[in-house]
Structures are given as structure tokens and as C-alpha cells.
């Protein structure tokens, strides 16, 4: 499960190392449950390092921006798109299949969510990222039984910030 959450080769080494630290901590959390919070914090550190590294590639002085501003910039500059997140990459196709199955069963149903936008998931993820990272940074206890969703989301966030090699 942890091996599935690897980064591609285009991620800068310093970001990759932060992320590997998080993955290793997650692995050791199988032996010590309380390390899950450390792994969660470290994966957010990796995500923050990635946003800063991408901003630096764009020639920006990251010392002039808060994490919130950098995450907003990532959305505005379209560094983060839903199609690049595994969790929702095929969302439109799944919804179409679901509607077709309902019609086949004789259940008329129209989509109630409206059109799918290219950054709906990314915007929600950015907001969750901010809240969880700030809670952890300010000493709140956040213990979750499974971090796979967080690791997949941050892996996809980091991977799409940098070109594959």
C-alpha cells in the first residue's frame, strides 16, 4: 500500500526526501500507532516543500508568500487540476456509467451536481491541506487509522507540480 504512493522521477530531490521521510514514518506507524500523526505532519511538510519548490522554479521569492498564498497561486496558475488526481481522474466517466446503469434499471435520474469543473477537487484538497497542516503545526492531535487517502492526494499534488522525467 505504501509502495503504491511513490513519486515520479521529475520531483526535486529535496521534496522527494521529505516525502520519503513521510512514507518511512508511515511504515513504522504499523509498529507504533502514534507515529501516524508524525507521518501525517511529514507528508504535509513534503507538500508544502513541493509548492515552494515549484514557485521557485517560476522565479518567485517564496519568503514573500504564506502557504495559503502559495496554494492559491497553485490553483490560479493551474498547477493543480482534478484530472491529475487519481481519486477523481475518471469522475466524469464514473458518473456517466452510473447514470446509464440507473436508466437501464428504469430509474430516471439527472445529475444533480451540475457541470464538473476542472479544479473542484483541487480546491477542496487545498482547503483541507491548509486546515490539517495548520492544526498539526499548532500542536493539535490528529490520529487517523489509515493515511492512504492523504498520501495519495499529496502524492498526486506533488507529482503534478513537476514534469515527469
Q: Descriptors for this entry?
A:
165 residues, mainly alpha, 6 helices, 58% helix
The overall strand count is 0
Our Rg estimate from Cα atoms comes to: 18 Å
The tally of domains stands at 1
- How much of the sequence lies in strands comes to under 5%
Oligomer: single chain
Total of DSSP H or I helical runs spanning 4+ residues = 6
Q: Structural class, from helix and strand content?
A: mainly alpha
**Fraction of residues in H or I helices:** 55-70%
How does the major sheet shape up?
A: none
Low-confidence stretches: none
Helix and strand run: HHHHHH
Overall 3D form: globular
End-to-end Cα distance: 24 Å
Mean pLDDT, to the nearest integer, reads 89
Overview of this protein structure:
The protein has helices at 13-28, 35-57, 67-76, 91-104, 120-137, 148-161. The protein is an all-alpha fold. The protein is globular and about 55 Å long.
Please outline the helices and strands:
Blueprint: H1 13-28, H2 35-57, H3 67-76, H4 91-104, H5 120-137, H6 148-161
Helix pairs in contact: 1-2, 2-3, 2-5, 2-6, 3-5
Produce a short descriptive summary.
This protein has 165 residues and is mostly helical. It has helices at 13-28, 35-57, 67-76, 91-104, 120-137, 148-161.
Amino acid at each position: 500500500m505504501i509502495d503504491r504512493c511513490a513519486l515520479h522521477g521529475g520531483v526535486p530531490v529535496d521534496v522527494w526526501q521529505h516525502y520519503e521521510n513521510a512514507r518511512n514514518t508511515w511504515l513504522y506507524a504499523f509498529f507504533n500507532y502514534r507515529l501516524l500523526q508524525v507521518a501525517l505532519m511529514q507528508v504535509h511538510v513534503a507538500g508544502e516543500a513541493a509548492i515552494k519548490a515549484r514557485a521557485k522554479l517560476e522565479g518567485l521569492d517564496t519568503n514573500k508568500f504564506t502557504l495559503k498564498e502559495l496554494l492559491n497561486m497553485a490553483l490560479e496558475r493551474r498547477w493543480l487540476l482534478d484530472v491529475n488526481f487519481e481519486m477523481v481522474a475518471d469522475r466524469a466517466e464514473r458518473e456517466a456509467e452510473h447514470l446509464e446503469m440507473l436508466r437501464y434499471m428504469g430509474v430516471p435520474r439527472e445529475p444533480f451536481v451540475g457541470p464538473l469543473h476542472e479544479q473542484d477537487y483541487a480546491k477542496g484538497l487545498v482547503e483541507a491541506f491548509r486546515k490539517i497542516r495548520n492544526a498539526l503545526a499548532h500542536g493539535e492531535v490528529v490520529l487517523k487509522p489509515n493515511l492512504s487517502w492523504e498520501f495519495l492526494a499529496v502524492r498526486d499534488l506533488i507529482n503534478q507540480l513537476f514534469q515527469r522525467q
